[in-house]
Write a structure and sequence with these properties.
Layout: E1 2-3, H1 8-24, E2 29-33, E3 37-38, E4 45-55, E5 61-71, H2 83-93, E6 104-108, H3 111-114, E7 118-122, H4 146-163, H5 183-197, H6 206-218, E8 227-229, E9 238-240, E10 246-249, E11 256-258, H7 261-274, H8 289-298, H9 307-331, H10 337-340, H11 342-361
Antiparallel strand pairs: 1-3, 2-4, 4-5, 5-7, 6-7, 8-11, 9-10
C-alpha cells in the first residue's frame, strides 16, 4: 500500500466535491474524505482507497471505506479499456448464488472529474493471494496448513463453477462479443484484432506467438457453449475471508461470454505462470494441473474436453498482455528491458509448452 503522490490534493478535492454531490441526492451533507492510498500492483487501471465520512439526512455521522477505480488513460494494455463496463458487470452479477462481487455505488462517465471515467465501490476487507512474489513462494498462503490451502483452492474453484452456472440474462447480454458465429468464433475474431493492435509489442518470441494464434484459428473446437466468462479467473483476483471463504471476485476487465473452458484454461495457465514456469513447486495441499481439472469437475463444473486448447488460448493472451506491459514499463522508465522481458518470455514459454502438449495429443 502506498500514499498517492503528486496531484493527490487536487484529486482529493475533486473526489470530495463529487461525492458530496452524489451523497447529497440522498440527503447527505458535510462530506469529508481522508488520505488517499493505492495498492502496490495493478497496471490496467488506477485504484484509490478512499475513507469517507458524511452526515445523513437524519443528522447521524456515517463512514465508509470506498474504492475508486479509474480507467487508465496514460497507457493501454487493452484495445478499448472500459472501466464502466467492469462496474456494469459486477452490478449485473450482484446476488448471483456463489458469486460474491463488490457492491457498486456510483459510476461516472465524465472525464472532467478525474481525467477518465471511474466507478466507486465498497471496499472488501479480505486477503488476496499474491502474484509478485508468487503466492506459491511467499506471503500469508505459505503460513497456511495444507488442509487450509486445499480449502482455499476449492473455495475459489467453487466460485468459478458457480459463475459458470449464472444464466445469461438480459442484464448480462452486453458482455457478448458482436459479430457472427458462435461465442468462441467471436472471441477469436476479437483476439485476432488484439494481436494486430499489439504489433509493435510482439517482439518476445514472435514466431512462437504467431504459431500459437494460428493453431487457435485453425483448430478451433466445436464448442457452442455460451455462458458468462470472467476472463481473469485466478486466485489472485479473489478476496478470501479469515475462514477462507470467498468474499469477492474482482477484476472483470476482460469479462465476456463463451465456453467455460476459457476460464478454466486461464486458471490453469496462470497457476503454471506463477509456479512451474518460475521453477517453483506447488505448496502442499494445492493440486497440480490435472488435480485442478479434477477438482473443477468434482465441484460441479462441466467436463471440458478441449481444455488443452483453452490453455493455449490463455497463454497467447497472457503473452500479448505481458508484452504490452513490458513496453509500458520500459517506456515509462519504471523497469529496465532485461527485467521487463521476464514476464512475456515466461508467457511465450507457456505457449510453446501448450503447443507441444497439443501436438502430442493429436
Amino acid at each position: 500500500m502506498r500514499a498517492v503522490g503528486s496531484g493527490a490534493g487536487d484529486v482529493r478535492t475533486a473526489l470530495a466535491a463529487w461525492l458530496e454531490q452524489r451523497l447529497g441526492r440522498a440527503g447527505g451533507t458535510e462530506v469529508a474524505i481522508g488520505d488517499l492510498t493505492s495498492p502496490d500492483a495493478g497496471y490496467s487501471g488506477k485504484t484509490l482507497f478512499v475513507p469517507a465520512t458524511w452526515t445523513d439526512r437524519d443528522g447521524a455521522r456515517r463512514s465508509a471505506e470506498l474504492v475508486v477505480r479509474v480507467q487508465q488513460s496514460d497507457h493501454q494494455l487493452f484495445v478499448a479499456p472500459d472501466a464502466l463496463r467492469q462496474a456494469r458487470t459486477m452490478a449485473a452479477l450482484a446476488g448471483a448464488p456463489g458469486v460474491p462481487v463488490p457492491e457498486i455505488l456510483y459510476t461516472e462517465s465524465d472525464d472532467a472529474v478525474l481525467g477518465a471515467p471511474f466507478y466507486v465501490m465498497v471496499r472488501v476487507h479480505g486477503r488476496v493471494p499474491g502474484d509478485i512474489p508468487s503466492w506459491h513462494a511467499r506471503g500469508w498462503t505459505v503460513e497456511l496448513s495444507p488442509a487450509d490451502r486445499s480449502l482455499l483452492y476449492d473455495n475459489g474453484l467453487a466460485a468459478l463453477v458457480a459463475l459458470h452456472r449464472v444464466p445469461r440474462t438480459a442484464e448480462l447480454q452486453f458482455l457478448a462479443e458482436p459479430g457472427e458465429g458462435t461465442a468462441l468464433d467471436r472471441y477469436l475474431t476479437r483476439l485476432e484484432g488484439w494481436y494486430e493492435w499489439c504489433g509493435p509489442s510482439r517482439r518476445f518470441g514472435p514466431e512462437t506467438l504467431a504459431e500459437g494464434l494460428r493453431h487457435l484459428l485453425d483448430h478451433r473446437p466445436d464448442d457452442p457453449a455460451e455462458g458468462v466468462v470472467w476472463g481473469d479467473a485466478r486466485p489472485g483476483n479473489i478476496s478470501f475471508g479469515d475462514d477462507l471463504s470467498v468474499l469477492a471476485l474482482f477484476d472483470w476487465e476482460t469479462a465476456t461470454t463463451g465456453p467455460p473452458g476459457i476460464d478454466l484454461g486461464w486458471w490453469l495457465m496462470f497457476e503454471r505462470f506463477l509456479c512451474e514456469a518460475q521453477g517453483l513447486q506447488r505448496l502442499e495441499g494445492v493440486p497440480d494441473r490435472e488435480g485442478t481439472i479434477a477438482r473443477y469437475v468434482a465441484l460441479g463444473g462441466a467436463d471440458q474436453p478441449h481444455v488443452d486448447y483453452y490453455e493455449l488460448m490463455a497463454a497467447v493472451v497472457m503473452t500479448l498482455i505481458s508484452s504490452r506491459l513490458a513496453d509500458v514499463l520500459v517506456s515509462s522508465g519504471k523497469t529496465p528491458e532485461k527485467y521487463a522481458s521476464v514476464f512475456p518470455m515466461r508467457a511465450v514459454g507457456l505457449v510453446r509448452e501448450s503447443l507441444d502438449r497439443l501436438g502430442r495429443s493429436s
